[in-house]
Amino acid sequence: MEIQPRRAWVMIGLACAALLGGCVSAGLNYDELRSGTFSGSLVVIWVGEGGTSGDGRFLYVPEPGNPLTFRRRNVSAPGSLIRPGIMYTDGGSIPKIAQAFRGFSPWGYAPAYMVHDWLFAARHCLRDGSNDAKYRRLGDVTFDDSAKIIGEAIRTLVESGRVTENDTAASLITAAVGTDVARRLWDVDGACASSTVRAEDLALAERIVPGSTGVSFREIVPTSRAKIVSRVTF
């Protein structure tokens, strides 16, 4: 599967920052962001090979009764509570060349990446006319909000001791999501359809994590090509 438009921001932003310099926005300061709270479980299923970034093709699956949830400290802020739905992801779309550096694993800040992926998914589907409640509740989240939120989510992982502190990686990734390139991807039309999870992958998710899709399948696709590769519980 090709990289989804909403995930290309990290790949492009980090490449600009690391190789060209000065390509990232100076308007968002990671050090000034406030941490929030994570709860629930993150479950990721491998479903196929990836492209030139990330580490393959994966499916984020919300665990029934204990889905991954991020709460911003400011409860009145846009996106004050974010609970991602089932979706394709490649973790952080970190260029292969950058993955050699500490802090730039495509899964190093996985919960934060899932939150940001979901914001882009909601934005694209709302822009394409979706009236789904799971997207509408994030309708007031702006592009600038999305950049702040991933920074807050990363800070939350650091301050809670879930990841090792790395100011360079955290700052650079936070800045990458605020680039003009990422802003243009935020406003792409027609991207909702490409993020729709295929029936066969929904069946895989339902087989591995029963009750996760809300869909009943008469015939479940064999799971030989899929497996849980990550499960993190807060």
From TrEMBL:
Q: What is this protein called?
A: DUF1353 domain-containing protein
